[in-house]
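Lab notebook, bench 4. The sequencing result for the construct came back, and we need a structural model before the next group meeting so we can plan mutations. Quick request posted to the team channel:

Model the 3D structure of this chain.
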Amino acid sequence: MSSKVKKKILKLKESSTLVINEKSKELISKGKKVYQFGFGQSPFPVPDKIVETLKKYAHRKEYLPIQGLPELREKISKYLLHRTGNNFPKENILITPGSKEAMLLIHIAFNGEIIIPAPGWVSYEPQAEIGSNKVHWLETSRTNNWFPTGKELEKKIISIGKNKNLIFILNSPNNPSGTVCKNLEELARVAKKYKIMILSDEIYTDLTFNDSYHSISKFYSELTFITGGLSKWCGAGGWRLGFLAVPKKLTEFLSSLKSLASESYSTVNTPTQYASVEAYANEHKQYKLKVKAILKAVGNYVYNNLKSNKILIAPPQGAFYLMPEFKIKKFKTSSKLCEAILNETGVAMLPGSDFGFKPKKLLTRLSYTDFDGTEFYRNVTNCNQIDDEMIKKFAPNVVEGVSKLSNWAKNL
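Done. Here's the predicted structure in token form:
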């Protein structure tokens, strides 16, 4: 039967982030205590006003335009202008069922090759393969906060060939490292020099802990796509609402994306698009402040209680991830390391090899969202007073899992 499936599709595996979530739930159903540090999902409730708007428009059942509700695209255009200083008019915004779908459409339409910094999100490479675009990994290091330097990017571009069609993918704050890129201008300068396109995955940008929104499009708006959506800052992953902002120079590219959208998902579900007008029309400042304060406090708790001579780790800067590196010679690959940790401690994490690192590099991704976000959110009255006692009370699984992981490493 396998001969009936295209070879490139046969090579694909299910997304490891979704697989670890299902595996964790399966182990829990069998009575095993599992600390779910593998799946990156916001634990927080969707803001009440946005939920109320969804209810209000639940009866709307008509198809909306392929490109998305004009009013929603207008709000996203203003949202991006305010944050990036760049004008992506509503005509250049495409509403998609999650930002993941927006990226997939780009890969299918694009004819060229892809540069992905390692670490990079688990779906970047498989999507490129679906689109028949060759992938070039660009391995980064802790010394530059897990992002490439301008020199490293330039060297990679030259090694591939200056005249190739290239897309460079940038994700900041980063999944899986939780770090923020501090050399955007330098990277933009190189991209501009060689006229390559940039796909700026900004799904976590509203969860930057220093309260500022950083977009590489500020320095290179001409050929930078931006993707974003509701899943991370708004806690609405299952609503599947994302967007793609296309620079004016690539309007022809957008036409092809619209054609692909029309022949695949047709349009994003109607009630969610109306609810998303409310999401992008207002800042939701208090909600975001509280969510970021909780994530930063929990992330710092994990960092402070894990770092040791056996576990190297950087403090959290955004999103809800940390990327521990284990200095333990017993394991040959990060995959074997994660397997042993899950079996021996119940802590579920993803191996660094899922994010573009060589298997022998013992890095893992730790998502610190295994807590009741509704309960935690409800009990925070002062964002500056989230102490260890609160974390122990409202994020007990995180506290217990970190303790088990730390003790396990110490005893090896």
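Residues 2-46+285-410 form a domain with the Aspartate Aminotransferase, domain 1 fold (CATH 3.90.1150.10).
Will bring this to the meeting.
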